[in-house]
Structure formats: structure tokens, C-alpha cells
């Protein structure tokens, strides 16, 4: 039997047994070298080597611990440090758990070694790594983590009426990455809202962001209309603000929702602008007409507007303002054998051929029987000025004919408002006056020839 020491009348007793096991407060059970029954307090350093068992609440730095292990430090944050033979035993070694001493107090988990911090869980059959924080700060969730439908990060709102979100992949090597939302409030069924597939294509509202070659981004609205909207601090954030690009049914659209211009550019230079009022300018940032096209310069080699059939130019507006009608079979210039351009602007602004003189374009050909000399003699040349409302230089003198006077002589020499020869008289056809001039010369020549014959017969 061992030796028992009883110290006076103190309630605490010290016991030993034959194996030199020590008990405080009660006889030792024989399983441990030291057993304490009741509360033990260490005011300095406690060094325990080998396997030790502590039952009940253990306090470090606190006299009355309320949990299994409680660490208290009056100055600064409390810290529990774990080290081993590989880490060293200094204050900056090992793994630390504690508070940072600030208020409110932040809990900290500190890996003081130049290595990763790893988190494990046990799924019932084995202990598996679930997350790793690298020494460089990177966070990794291993690809072999199992979970419902491959979800890696779950967010469930505390509000029962809110929807939950999950971040996941499809558990396949280089598989899709997606962010999913619960389909109903507090629901357990999820639908992907954002997807990145193995090719790097991005999809919003679709799990298959693939289509035409080179396609990298797909937006699927799931409704009859889908839009992408770009807004700034100047546009506001309402549903009708900003620039919107989308589709309505099968029609595509680009909408400038602000009261400002819409511009299109290439090579970092503006090429076309649709003004807020609807006018369109090409190669210019301003336009006061519905369509304004500006050439690169004012030379004949620069064209502001053109129309072609295949590779053949049919109609061009040159930078110097001239019109070019082309040499193709469909071009007005090539419809006759004339050696000069045959396009002219009529009195009403219409474009017409002016040299369609070939017989193949004409019918009902009859000799003109009117007297050319009398027609020419009946014309009354005038000097005049234009009204200021019509011409910007009202003091400038002009020489010409008055259309109404010419019409009284011959209707062939004027243009009327209507093509059937009715309506107001508008313009003198000066080119047509060449015809009675030819007739007048012929008539005068006939008179001269007759006079010459009479003089010859008279011996003069």
C-alpha cells in the first residue's frame, strides 16, 4: 500500500500509490502519473510531456473557464500556438489562433510558416482536403471536392423570401464554370445564370454559349426581347437610359436612348454620325439634312457618293461637285453614240439624258414646216435682273429671253410645269433654239441663192 500524506486540516489531499502515481484531491487511479480531482491552478509555466488527458473545462490565463479550453490574455489578443519540430518554437513559428486585440475583436487564423494553410473535412469514409490557402495568398478549392451538382460556394440568404446563389463547375476536367440562382424564393432547384465553357466562351442566361466561329459572348434573355445596356454616371440608371443593343423577336436593333448623337468609327476615327434629330452625316460630324455625305477632298478623284452594278460604276458624285454617269451599258451616257455626256438637270431638278439623238430612240419623224427665220426674228432678247428672293445678287444684269415671250413664238422652245405641255411656263430651252437657227440659215441661203441666180441672168 502506498504512502498517504494529509496536510493538517486542509481540504486538499496528496496521495501516492505503489507505482509512484500521484493523486491530488483523491487517490490516483493508477492510469496516470498525476491526477487532480477538482480545480487546478498554475500561476507560472506548466510543461506537459507525452500524452495527457484533461477532463472538464481548461483555462489558460483565466481562473474560471466556461468551455473545454479557454485562453485569456489581458494585454492584446489571446493566442493559441501550435508548433512542431519542423516549425521551431519561437513566437513567430507555427500556427496561431487568436484575436487581434482590436475592438470589435477580430478572430485570426495565422499560418506563420512559408507554407499553405489547409482545411479538411471527413465525409464518413475518409478525410479529404476541402480548401487550401497558398503561402502567396491564392485560394484553391480542389477539383475533387464532392457536393450537390458540383457546387463549390453556396450563398443562402437569411431572408426566407430571397433567392439563393451557388458557384460551381460540372465536375469534369476543364468543364463549365457557372453561377446559378434558385428558380424560386427559398427553392432548392437552381438554374445557371452565368457560364464560362471549356473554350472560354461566356454566356449569360444560357449554359451553352456557342454558335458562329469566334463567338465569345452570348446573352440569352429567355424572352421575346433581349438587351445589353451600357450606362454611365451621366446617363442615369433607369430602364430607358444609356445605349442598348439587342433583339426583338428576330429583328436586331441599336438604340441611343439619350437625347444625343450615335457615332460609328473605324481605326479610331469617326465615320458616320446619326444626330439626335435623325439627320445622318457620313464623314462629317454635323448635318442639317437627312443624309449628308462628305468626300475626303474637293478633287475629281474623290467621290462622295456612288452606285455600281457589280464592278461597274453607273453613277458617281465627285468631290468637286460634278456628276459622273459611267460607261456601262446601263449608264445614261452609253445609251447614245454621242461623244459628250448626255445627263442634264431639268428645270424641276430631275436628271435626264440630253443627247439621245439617235434614230433608234425616236418615232413619228416629220420635217418641221414652220418658218425658221420668222421664228428667230420673233424672239425678243432682253436684259433683266432676278428677284432677290430667287437670286442672291439682285443688282446683277443678265441677257436672255423671257420664257412667256418665247412660248408665244413656239412652244417647242420652252418647258412647262407638266410634261404634257400644260401648267405654268418655267424655262427657255436655249439648246432647242439651235433648230430654228439652222432652219433660218437654210431659208436665208435659199434667198441668197435665188438672188444670185437673178443677178446672173440679168448680166449683173
**Whole-number radius of gyration?**
52 Å
- Major beta-sheet overview: 6 strands, mixed
How many angstroms separate the termini?
189 Å
Shape verdict: rod-shaped
Quaternary state of the chains: single chain
User: Can you tell me the residue ranges where pLDDT is under 50 for at least 5 consecutive residues?
Assistant: 7-11, 144-149, 335-340
Number of strands: 34
Percent helix among the residues?
A: under 10%
Count of helical stretches: 3
Biggest sheet: strand arrangement? 13-14-15-16-17-18
Label the structural class. Answer: mainly beta
What does this structure look like?
By secondary structure, the protein is mostly beta strands. Among the domains are: 39 residues, no CATH class; 33 residues, no CATH class; 134 residues, no CATH class; 92 residues, no CATH class. Helix content is 8%, strand content 32%. It is built from 3 helices and 34 strands. The strands form 11 sheets. It has a 6-stranded mixed sheet, with no helix packed on it. A 4-stranded mixed sheet has the order 1-2-3-4, with no helix packed on it. Strand 29 and strand 30 form a beta hairpin. About 4% of the residues have low confidence.
